[in-house]
Amino acid sequence: MLCISAETLKSRFLADMDDGTPDEVFADLKPKNLGGWGVAQIAAGTGLAVYAMWVGILQPGFRKVPLRLQVPYIPASKAQVENVMMLLRGRAGGLTDLGSGDGRIVLTAHQRGFTPAVGYELNPWLVRLARYHAWRAGHLGKVSYLREDLWKVNLTECKNVTVFLAPSVLSLLQEKLLAELPDDALVVAGRFPFPDWTPSRTEGQGVDRAWAYSMKELRGCSQKNDE
Ligand SMILES: C[S@@+](CC[C@H](N)C(=O)[O-])C[C@H]1O[C@@H](n2cnc3c(N)ncnc32)[C@H](O)[C@@H]1O
After folding, report:
1. How many domains are contained in the chain?
2. CA of 130 to the centre of ligand 1 (A)
């Protein structure tokens, strides 16, 4: 922004009248074009700021996770959360969100009667944010947000599992879920389906779509295929 007082303007104008026309004087006072170098400096500064935000705020805790398994934080929309809840209707027991972000799925699940409702999240800032949201909603202490790598979590007791993760991760996660979840477990995926599984139900359309997978049905299918 160009800031110049009326007094300064007047004195510059009178002093410069000897050297040139008023047009030349005012041309002197116009903001200068940034030029290629100025644009490059702004671009480099913005890039650095974005990188610092990525490393410092969005991805801490991921240093030990291989790059191909890193999933960025993209919170579920209201419609996505609702579609997940529709697929979980009629279910009871606990709920586990793998990669719980700011905790919205866990909090909604708790409000719909799932106990215990637990979220596993590697990013410590998001764990704090999730606890803050729970506190604001008056449910702190009734939901759990744990700073843990989802690959190291024991899932053998989980009955309802939700995942909003990238396709590259889902193909690997299939194996862990099949190996650990009980037969009566239901897995609900948002945004991307599991690449090799057939869903028992789906809800919503487009980016808001969610897929439900019954472990019993999946195991039944793989047994039939083996025979
Ligand atoms: C697409 S976001 C989904 C967040 C949340 N479930 C929602 O739907 O709003 C994926 C989350 O998974 C977390 N995440 C990725 N890999 C993880 C891992 N190995 N262990 C724990 N959390 C992980 C990310 O930090 C991110 O917050």
Report:
1. 2
2. 12
pTM over 0.70: yes
Per residue in 34-74, pLDDT tens?
A: 688 888 888 887 777 766 666 565 566 666 677 667 788 99
Are 193 and 87 within one domain? yes
113: left (phi over 0), alpha (psi -120 to 50) or beta: left
For ligand 1, atom 14: residue with the closest CA = 99
Pairing of strands 160-163, 95-98: parallel
16 lines ligand 1 (CB under 6 A): no
Sheet strand arrangement including 95-98: 143-146, 117-120, 95-98, 160-163, 186-190, 210-214, 201-203
Residue 94's domain spans which residues? Answer: 78-226
Does 190 reside within a domain?
Answer: yes
pLDDT digits (tens, 9 = 90+) for 107-139: 999 999 999 999 999 999 999 999 999 999 999
∠154-68-70 over CA atoms, to 5°? 60
Domain assignment present for residue 97? The answer is yes
Residue 88 maps to a domain: yes
